[in-house]
């Protein structure tokens, strides 16, 4: 599993596996702030509904837990002269794997045994922002947006995290018991359409934010206390979005507790 994720995320994970501490974090972190497509100011139709499917992979900090997720997303956006709002829902399912294959009694005092567990969850997305359009109306500058995601995570992996949290924590393990996750922050975005083909568009978005009080949801072994002391959930997400007629492609990478990448394909209804 770890090899698969490293192959998918070569740039992000070059420095990930630098210690032997194992973090059990919620699986969706890093992949919960998905791009929400919006109509441009110059479009005649100001309301856009988008459905998409995603494949996401991520890893928790340090020697971490690896995640593979399939996601389904649907959202609707409304574009006004100087403002926009978007909202949507998403669902996800997949697997988490990690731990140490050495199950000797001495080793289990320090590390988790090897595991592979199922993941499932649902979530809500909301975004509201301000923008302005260029003089030729080919470019929109969505200069500030308030972004929020609320996720509810379940499955065997979540149950496993609860069991580890409520037991003796191995020395090199840190575990969060959080099941409900609220992530919030600000983003900025630029989107433009090709002058000779307005159905062909590019967009770049950058988000920065975090999950309030997330650090307080951890219990840790004695060897990890100093490692997580003072840590917080602040992180970033970067998107590239391509729109061709009604079809879209979104590429995303994030360092938002978990290190993550996601690819999404979608279709927009007007």
Automatic annotation (TrEMBL):
Write the protein's name: DUF2490 domain-containing protein
């Amino acid at each position: 599993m770890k090899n698969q994720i490293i192959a998918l995320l070569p740039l992000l994970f070059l420095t990930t596996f630098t210690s032997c501490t194992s973090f059990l974090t919620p699986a969706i972190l890093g992949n919960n702030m998905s791009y929400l497509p919006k109509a441009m100011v110059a479009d005649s139709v100001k309301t856009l509904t988008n459905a998409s499917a995603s494949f996401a992979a991520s890893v928790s900090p340090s020697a971490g837990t690896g995640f593979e997720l399939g996601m389904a997303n649907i959202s609707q956006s409304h574009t006004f002269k100087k403002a926009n709002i978007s909202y949507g829902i998403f669902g996800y399912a997949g697997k988490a794997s990690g731990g140490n294959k050495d199950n000797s009694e001495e080793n289990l005092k320090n590390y988790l045994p090897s595991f592979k567990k199922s993941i499932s969850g649902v979530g809500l997305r909301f975004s509201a922002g301000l923008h302005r359009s260029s003089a030729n109306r080919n470019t929109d500058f969505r200069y500030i947006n308030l972004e929020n995601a609320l996720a509810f995570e379940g499955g065997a992996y979540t149950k496993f995290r609860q069991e580890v949290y409520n037991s003796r924590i191995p020395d090199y393990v840190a575990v969060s018991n959080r099941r409900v996750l609220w992530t919030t922050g600000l983003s900025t975005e630029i989107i433009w359409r090709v002058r000779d083909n307005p159905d062909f568009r590019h967009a770049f978005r950058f988000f920065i934010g975090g999950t309030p009080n997330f650090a307080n949801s951890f219990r840790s072994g004695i060897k990890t206390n100093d490692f997580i002391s003072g840590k917080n959930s602040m992180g970033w997400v970067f998107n590239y979005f391509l729109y061709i007629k009604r079809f879209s492609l979104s590429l995303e990478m994030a360092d938002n507790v978990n290190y993550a990448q996601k690819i999404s394909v979608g279709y927009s209804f007007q």
